[in-house]
Amino acid sequence: MPARMNKMYVLRLLLWIYSAIPVVSSKFSCLEMKQFCSCSVETEWWLHEWTDLKIVNCSYRSLSEVPNLTKLRDRDFHKLLLNNNNITEISDEDFKNLSVREVVLRKNPIKRISNDAFSSIRHSVEILNLDSDKIKLDEGLTFLRGLYNLKQLDLGYNQLKDRYKVFPANLFANLNLSSLNTLTLQSLLMSDIIEGAFIGIENLEQLDLSSNYLFKFPTEVLRLRNLKGLKLYSNELITLKNNTFTGLKHLSKLLIGVNEITAETMEMGIFHDQEESMIEINLYQNPLYRVPKKVLKPLKNLKKLSLVKTNLEVIPNGTFVGEYRLKELHLDDNKKLKFEDDGMFHGIEESLEVLFIRSLNLSKLPLNVLERLKNLYHLDATDNVIRKVDKHFFDGLKLSEVNLMWNNITNVDHRAFRHFDKGVILNLHHNSIKNISFILQVEQCTFKEIYLTGNKIPCDCTVEKVLHSGLVSWQTVGECHLVKTDGTDGRVVYNFKDEELHSYLVRTCGRTKPSANCNPTQSSRTNNSWSLKTSMIFSYSLAVLSIIFMLFV
Question: Residue 539: pLDDT above 70?
Answer without folding.
Answer: no
